[in-house]
Design a protein that fits this description.
Blueprint (H helix, E strand, L loop, with lengths): L3 E3 L5 E6 L24 E6 L2 E10 H6 L4 H22 L26 H8 L11 E4 L1 H8 L10 E3 L7 E3 L2 E5 L8 E3 L4 E14 L8 E14 L2
Parallel strand pairs: 1-10, 5-8
Antiparallel strand pairs: 2-3, 4-11, 5-9, 6-7, 7-8, 10-11
Length: 232
């Protein structure tokens, strides 16, 4: 929800400002003199179409003999599986498929250590410039959050604070903490509008009564077509 979403079909090419190779700057000028142009360099990211599919087959005998709406129950479980798939792909990506947050530049990463310390959490937070700090959040696994909950600063104060006003009940260095088991041992920090997500086909779910009739089964099929990469 915090990412920059594009609902378009086909390939989407987004410009990406190349700060390292650009030289736009304001200078003092004398009247009547010619201006010297700065260099503007752009890279680009390409968002394509990667198709995801989810299929579940349910016994018609189970459907007929149950007092509960089994099909609706399975649809809900499939929706949860799709949400977890999207979450994993945005955070970790897959080789030759969706890049997701793997597109973060190497110079923006903090060198990993054997254990998490308050110092390297501060170093991670300070990789983001102040303009993007207001909407930045932490994302980590529950196991990592558990380790950070035990961290104390030099004054014996806990680094991770219980905050009932925060979205998920915790703040770390003044920022909300989100958890995902898909992220593994990584910790991500930043303003997630820098992540571009292109959705060519939103989740499309169908109940197939005829296709698996000879098996005495009902099929539930879902498709999703999307891509994601870091745009800023």
């Amino acid at each position: 929800q915090m990412s920059e979403r594009y609902n378009v079909a086909g390939q989407l090419v987004l410009p990406k400002y190349d700060k390292e190779n650009s030289s736009i700057e304001m200078k003092y000028a004398d009247e009547g003199t010619q201006a010297e142009s700065g260099k503007v360099a752009f890279a680009s990211i390409e968002l394509n179409e990667h198709l995801g599919r989810c299929l579940a087959k349910v016994s018609k005998s189970l459907v007929n003999n149950s007092k509960f709406d089994i099909v609706a129950f399975v649809i809900e479980k499939m929706a949860q599986a799709i949400a977890l798939f999207i979450e994993k792909e945005l955070l970790k990506g897959t080789d030759e498929k969706i890049e997701g947050l793997r597109g973060i530049a190497e110079d923006m990463k903090v060198t990993a250590t054997a254990e998490i310390t308050a110092d390297n959490l501060i170093d991670l937070q300070d990789k983001v410039v102040d303009n993007f700090q207001p909407n930045s959040v932490f994302i980590m696994s529950r196991a990592t959050r558990n380790e950070i909950r035990k961290l104390k600063d030099a004054d014996k104060n806990f680094v991770l604070n219980r905050d009932l006003t925060a979205k998920w009940g915790y703040t770390l260095l003044g920022k909300d903490v989100y958890t995902s088991d898909a992220i593994g041992s990584d910790i991500v920090y930043g303003d997630l509008t820098g992540l571009a997500v292109k959705v060519s086909e939103d989740v499309n779910m169908q109940v197939l009564h005829e296709k698996y009739a000879e098996e005495h089964m009902t099929g539930i099929l879902a498709f999703l077509e999307f891509d994601a990469d870091v745009q800023d």
